[in-house]
Amino acid sequence: METESEPYVRLATLRQLHQVVAELNTARSLADTLQTVVDGIVVGLGYELACVNLVRPDGDLVVAAFAGDPAAEALITGRVGSRASWERRLTMGESWDGLRFIPHTEGWVLLEDDVPQWHTDGPDPRFADEWHPEDRLYAPMYASGGELLGVISVDRPRNGRRPGAWGREALQMYAFQAAIAISNARLRANMQRALVRLEREQQALRASEESFRQAFEYAPSGMAIAEMGGDQHGRLLRTNDALCRLLGRPASVLRRYSFSDLVHPEDIGTLLRTSAEGGRAELRLGRRDGTYVWVSLRNSVVADAADGPRFLLTHVEDIEERKRHELQLAHRASHDSLTGLPNSAELRSRLGARLCRRPQSVRATAVEALDAAYEGHGAHGGHGAHAGGGTEAGGAVGEHGFRPDAYPEPFEYPGAPAVPGTGVPGVPGPGGPGAGPGPYDHHVHTVAPASDIDDGTKGLAVLFCDLDGFKSINDRFGHHTGDAVLIEVARRLTTGVRDGDTVARLGGDEFVVLADGLGAADAADLAVRLRNAIIPPIRVDGRAVRVGASFGIGWASCGMSADEVLRSADQRMYIEKRSRSKAHRRAG
């Protein structure tokens, strides 16, 4: 089970959250959207009970959807609580950013008000953050204009504890997305009613056109009408003010473009794959200042009259904030929360990306490997000394001037898609399916020096660092001082390496440095420099403390796994640590 103290968000939890957020946009009607909201909380956010209290036109809030307990759902669904009672609740208790938590010690005064509620009796909490059956947690939902749309109420976390920082942020972000989904569902309902009226007789058509015009012009999100079919397919005919503001272009200028002219070059394929009717896509549109904004496009087909031309109505929703949150969550999942360095999972990902499964039996530098692959290239290009169709000695030359036997066996490396016509991942070739390996290898193998003596080979050095004397600092001065030391050590390590190198924290007082293009002597010098950078005193709250560092130097090589590389460096670190006396190891 995930705990709030873990330094990164579990990817499984992140995927669940993304899944339930994505499902908010699949519901068609407002009722389906509301039920999807509460189901997503129970499925993805770890609460046993959830309900949505929706603001009615008269201002009071009605229980519009419930999930988690059929008996409670039958009892309170459809019941109404006054706006005054809800406003009172949203000012009580503790404010958790955009959430409102009312502990059971304060909530007893709410037992007699008119807000529908359901709770079960239970024992008093045994520890500070244990959830009490009468605790209340609310997540208000607001429209883009700031008016209250409704309130999400959750109860009974599955882990029995009050949510920590990650749980609060997840619920707050989910409420933000739910507000967008509910607003969109209401807007879609209005648009569908307008579209039905457009198909009726002329008198009803004129009335519905005015309703449609207002819904289009004053929609809080971007709207556009484009031509459908013909030579001008996709050309924008009409845009609302929200879309003009979003893209920073006046309506008169937008009428010269289609969405294919505005979309980011990398997203053109996504736009083309979006179907005309009922299609949706998330992509980037260009602003006037040259920047791009993430939007969600939703298309529907509109008929101008009973048998008139058909147009494409596109709803453009600004999702830049959501994408930013997704990037922040992804960063949290791959980086240490204390030091900001890449964590263990990210380190293994970066290291694994440099390794392939084929062992490098012949130790050759990247330049030598490419020279072998391109040997004889001058035969056809006119750049070499040979004028014939082969090489002086060393085998036949392929039709492009390099030897097909330079890499005699196929291989795979992480992330390499199969190239059509080869049957081999990442190796292009002229043959059909099942053909042999191509004439050269796009992957430059990672090699390691043959020994600790510098033989000129440059490779990917893996420096495993373990702090000496850190435990005594934690024991004597507390974890606050220990955390400050780890942060400063991370800063010194990052300052002491090149821009392209990686400094990661494995956990505790262990760090790893990945430095490419180093020889054995270079790696040893780097270890000495980093150790000397760590040794100077670190001042924390007016107190100077010192730690030492033991470094083990390992080398990444194709044919090894990331765990094997790290284990090798770890073993070398312990050998280096034992080779020095304890008094000499400890610097503070």
UniProtKB/TrEMBL annotation:
Residues 378-438 are annotated as: Disordered. Its EC number is 2.7.7.65. This is Diguanylate cyclase. It comes from Streptomyces flavotricini. One of its GO terms (molecular function) is diguanylate cyclase activity. Transmembrane segments: none annotated. It comes from the Bacteria. Gene3D superfamilies: 3.30.450.40, 3.30.70.270, PAS domain. Residues 458-588 form the GGDEF domain. CDD domains: GGDEF, PAS. The keyword Transmembrane does not apply. Residues 379-398 have a biased composition (Gly residues). NCBIfam families: GGDEF (TIGR00254), sensory_box (TIGR00229). PROSITE patterns: GGDEF, PAC, PAS. Residues 208-267 form the PAS domain. Residues 184-211 form a coiled coil. Residues 279-331 form the PAC domain. SMART domains: GAF, GGDEF, PAC, PAS. The keyword Hydrolase does not apply. Keywords: Coiled coil, Nucleotidyltransferase, Transferase.
